[in-house]
């Protein structure tokens, strides 16, 4: 019993007695079935806990403080300025917050976003007719909740950045052995790859010094893309003062390095979007129990529905990779010389055929607010995405293209992969998760539980959007 640390359903039956009571035993919430007691002078006074059996064996313990990396608040405040400052982009027009905005639960509200060449914010973002985007960003913008938790050691949809103790940098990234040493965490490293993408922040090839360096493959070292951005930041006196105040080595004369910028941004993300005060968290802490459909949904999630086979733990992710049959839309992830629109997910990182079309299990914190869903943002409705999980092998065949949230982009074909019968069959054939029989009522209960994962403080953020940034450039609000 001590080892379980979970909710147990205690069924009590004496004649036609079936009582539900919330009791506390050794710090755990213990539940019994709802009272449908038929009036009886014989049985009315009797309440017997007769049989106990765990049906929620995967339910996690409450989040502990030591689950998170420590955060230096001064570093986080510096990171706040950098996160919202377009100075990090090649053309000085896109910030991290442009595609990870609290108005859209740290995403952008689009299936596939527009980076360079876009104007506006979220679903209202439109192509700049004077500088059209070359293509959509190939994958959905992921949310940023709880990325400061120690268990997050693999990031991006395909896991191409991950902790690797065998590397000098401690990280496995697309830069391999050229990766800089000095990133404090995998999150710190992750924050600095979007600045290298022409479709995201670097800009179109030859538009600026950053995009030119990326085009030539010069990322690290003097004159590399990261060095150019670092010097831009260092040349702004307000930033120079802030860096000297936060980092003693810089105060002693060391130049601002790119890793300093990324470490500060990571500290901000870790602090700003920590999410562990939802109704579900309060339930785990024994402060306020879930009830009704949310409680039923939790029992399904951690029980018969099998959701926790992948969405395990207190943040609802096993950090693994699974092929779920999510329809592929947009440009895909092709190399420069390739003409397909496929996105084979984890396989492009590992080279293993068994990883084809597998993508990282996302955390479900605040999931009801983070639409659209899937690596390609194919589902605008969480209910539709859940329904697709019921029969993942049939998801592609039954997919409704009309509901996808895409900004019109002239000359772009978004359905190349799905229009290829062989590719559509490959996506469906790669599915590794079993179908699960869930009634409409059960799906509604699961959605009620997912609603209980919403943390209002995390959605708003703690430091918020600054009034201004040291570069003086406009902020996306």
UniProtKB/TrEMBL annotation:
The keyword Transcription does not apply. InterPro entries: Cyt_c-like_dom, Cyt_c-like_dom_sf, Cytochrome_c_Peroxidase/MauG, Di-haem_cyt_c_peroxidsae. Keywords: Heme, Iron, Metal-binding, Oxidoreductase, Peroxidase. It is found in: Cell envelope. Its EC number is 1.11.1.5. Pfam families: CCP_MauG. The keyword Disulfide bond does not apply. One of its GO terms (molecular function) is cytochrome-c peroxidase activity. This is Cytochrome c551 peroxidase. It comes from Boseongicola aestuarii. The lineage of its organism: Bacteria, Pseudomonadati, Pseudomonadota, Alphaproteobacteria, Rhodobacterales. The gene is ccp.
């Amino acid at each position: 019993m001590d080892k379980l640390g979970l909710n147990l359903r205690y069924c009590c039956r004496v004649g036609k007695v079936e009582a539900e009571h919330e009791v506390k035993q050794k710090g755990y919430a213990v539940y019994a079935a709802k009272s449908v007691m038929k009036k009886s002078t014989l049985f009315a006074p009797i309440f017997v806990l007769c049989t106990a059996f765990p049906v929620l064996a995967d339910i996690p313990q409450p989040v502990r403080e030591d689950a998170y990396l420590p955060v230096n608040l001064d570093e986080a405040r510096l990171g706040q300025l950098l996160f919202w400052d377009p100075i990090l982009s090649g053309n000085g027009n896109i910030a991290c917050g442009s595609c990870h905005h609290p108005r859209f639960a740290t995403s952008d509200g689009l299936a596939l976003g527009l980076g360079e060449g876009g104007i506006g914010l979220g679903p209202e973002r439109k192509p700049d007719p004077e500088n059209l985007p070359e293509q959509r960003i190939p994958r959905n913008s992921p949310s940023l909740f709880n990325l400061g938790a120690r268990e997050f050691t693999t990031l991006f949809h395909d896991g191409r950045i991950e902790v690797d103790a065998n590397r000098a940098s401690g990280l496995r990234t697309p830069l391999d052995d050229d990766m800089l040493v000095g990133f404090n965490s995998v999150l710190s490293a992750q924050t600095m790859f979007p600045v290298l993408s022409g479709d995201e922040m670097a800009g179109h090839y030859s538009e600026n010094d950053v995009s030119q360096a990326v085009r030539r493959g010069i990322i690290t070292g003097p004159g590399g893309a990261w060095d150019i951005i670092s010097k831009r930041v260092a040349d702004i006196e307000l930033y120079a003062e802030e860096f000297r105040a936060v980092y003693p080595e810089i105060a002693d004369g060391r130049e601002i390095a790119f890793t300093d910028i990324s470490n500060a941004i990571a500290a901000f993300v870790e602090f700003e979007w920590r999410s562990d005060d939802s109704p579900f968290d309060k339930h785990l802490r024994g402060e306020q129990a879930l009830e009704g459909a949310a409680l039923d949904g939790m029992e399904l999630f951690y029980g018969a529905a099998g959701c926790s086979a992948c969405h395990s733990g207190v943040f609802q992710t096993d950090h693994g990779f699974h092929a779920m049959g999510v329809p592929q839309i947009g440009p895909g992830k092709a190399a420069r010389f390739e003409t397909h629109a496929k996105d084979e997910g984890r396989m492009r990182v590992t080279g293993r055929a068994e990883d084809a079309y597998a993508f990282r299990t996302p955390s479900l914190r605040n999931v009801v607010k983070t639409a659209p869903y899937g690596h390609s943002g194919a589902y605008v409705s969480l209910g539709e995405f859940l329904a697709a999980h019921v029969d993942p092998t049939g998801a592609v065949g039954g997919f409704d293209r009309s509901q996808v949230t895409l900004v019109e982009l002239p000359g772009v074909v978004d359905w190349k992969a799905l229009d290829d019968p062989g590719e559509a069959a490959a996506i469906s054939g790669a599915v590794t998760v079993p179908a699960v029989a869930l009634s409409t009522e059960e799906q509604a209960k699961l959605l009620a539980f997912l609603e209980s994962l919403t943390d209002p403080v995390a959605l708003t953020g703690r430091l918020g959007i600054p009034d201004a940034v040291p570069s003086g450039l406009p902020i996306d609000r």
